[in-house]
């Protein structure tokens, strides 16, 4: 069911990521200010954007679950949030490495973008413990969906508030009208890396959904065999 | 923001960032593979159970054949 199309999707993800990393190291020019260290940008920013997109996707499926009561939508929401937390860990780790190399510190507390991402990440870090603290499956799904919807709405609000903040921003801006002031070759490489990361997210999402579906079917089969 | 790091120093940071990403993806795939292994094991157990039941009940075996 969920495994349909997984093979071509996996091949496309690997090809897009290999292509993106080849462009990063052999095509994109060196940044005038930061030099070689800026190559982390092509990994860190797509990871962050896809993680945030995954949180919002979890919220969208949360709404679908609340409207339909469908277990399938709950599972899609859960897996999207679960994967986004993993990508969030990678975003924080790569961001800290970049910060250390670029700013000389692993973390800068007065930079709103970093703190906003950390708040979002910590919010979602509570999702799984809260979800599995509820034993009744229907209540668990309903409460998890409410969390996903509120969290999903909080993500864009949080980052819009950072944009509107009048703080002295150190963190570079990519998603503005000038494409972060990047030359075309850099922006193209970034877009390919973003596409590759999105494909990887969708592939892993389908992969995990397929695994969970197989496990649920196996449990149902075991119950039927036991009662026969 | 300070001046650009020399290539050898910057290279170590860039390599570390990409390796962190690779390690996380590999860990995730490894965990998924172990879960898949458990599903396979349970499926084998169920298949064996079904085969034993068929062996105990020849009528059922004929039905399945």
What labels describe this entry?
heterodimer; A: 228 residues; mainly alpha; 7 helices; 0% strand; globular; B: 65 residues; 2 helices; 88% helix; rod-shaped
Describe this structure in words.
The complex is a heterodimer of chains A (228) and B (65). With 228 residues, chain A is an all-alpha fold. Chain A is built from seven helices and no strands. Chain A has a domain at 31-185. Chain A is globular, with a radius of gyration of 20 Å. With 65 residues, chain B is an all-alpha fold. Chains A and B meet through helix 2, helix 3 and helix 7 of A and helix 1 of B.
Show the helix and strand layout:
The complex is a heterodimer of chains A (228) and B (65).
Chain A (H helix, E strand, L loop, with lengths): L5 H21 L14 H28 L2 H33 L8 H14 L1 H6 L4 H28 L19 H44 L1
Helix pairs in contact in A: 1-7, 2-3, 2-6, 2-7, 3-4, 3-6, 3-7, 4-6
Chain B lengths: L6 H50 L1 H7 L1
Which H/E pattern describes the elements of chain A?
HHHHHHH
Overall residue-averaged pLDDT value of chain B: 83
- What percent strand of chain A? under 5%
- Major sheet size, sense and barrel closure of chain B: none
What's the number of structural domains of chain B? 1
> Segments of chain B where pLDDT lies below 50 for 5+ residues?
none
The tally of strands of chain A reads 0
Q: Biggest interface between protein chains, with counts per chain?
A: A-B, 36 and 27 residues
Give the DSSP E fraction of chain B (strand runs of 2 or more residues): under 5%
Principal-axes shape call of chain A:
globular
Low-confidence stretches of chain A: none
- In sequence order, what are the helices and strands of chain B, one letter per element? HH
Counting DSSP H or I runs of 4 or more residues, the number of helices of chain B is: 2
Rg of chain A, Cα atoms, Å: 20 Å
Helical amount of chain B: over 70%
Find the count of extended strands of chain B (DSSP E, 2+ residues): 0
The level of helicity of chain A is over 70%
So what's the overall shape of chain B?
rod-shaped
Measured distance between first and last alpha carbons of chain B: 74 Å
Q: Tell me about the biggest sheet of chain A?
A: none
Q: How many whole angstroms does the radius of gyration of chain B measure? A: 26 Å
